[in-house]
Amino acid sequence: MRRRSSRGASLIEAAITVGVLAILALGTIEFGYAWRQSTVVEKTVQQSGRVVASVADQPMADYEALQTFRSFLGSSKNMSLDLLVVYRSTTADGAVPDQCLTTSVPGLCNRYEAADLNLPTSSFGSCTGTSRDRYWCPAGRERGRNPRPDYVGIYAQLQYSGITRSIPGGLTLERTAVYAIEPCASGLPGC
Fold this sequence. Notes:
Blueprint lengths: L1 H53 L6 H15 L3 E11 L19 E4 L38 E10 L10 E10 L11
Antiparallel strand pairs: 1-2, 1-3, 3-4
Helix pairs in contact: 1-2
């Protein structure tokens, strides 16, 4: 009789141990993948910032930044864009202005959401009417050398839902990159 109860207790202990180990393994996999995705998001934000800084005063500057994110999201799993803000920064390490997190602000920022990634090029570039980039118009961005070019910031907020769905509510990833707009070089259009 004692042998049988001992075997039953061993089975219960083994089941509990296997369950705990499975949870730890899934958690390790999930957080490892989330860390990897956060690194990819960081690189995408940096790339978008470089794109806007290099074509800063060209009509399609913001559109090009959105297309960088669109290609990233097309190749990523379990990621969705909540918010992308292209904003004027006063310093090289400037944070996104609080008001830009809720709305676009004239002369300061253009706020975009996931649906804006699929807008046609005609929705950008005119800086008038319903143009999505009309609040901080690319044509008004300072590219001159005197006194100095503007700083352009990219802020992105994304949701990571996870591959195993073991993170309740998923994770919110927020990243920012700020670059000085590349000064106008002699011989370039508009310089």
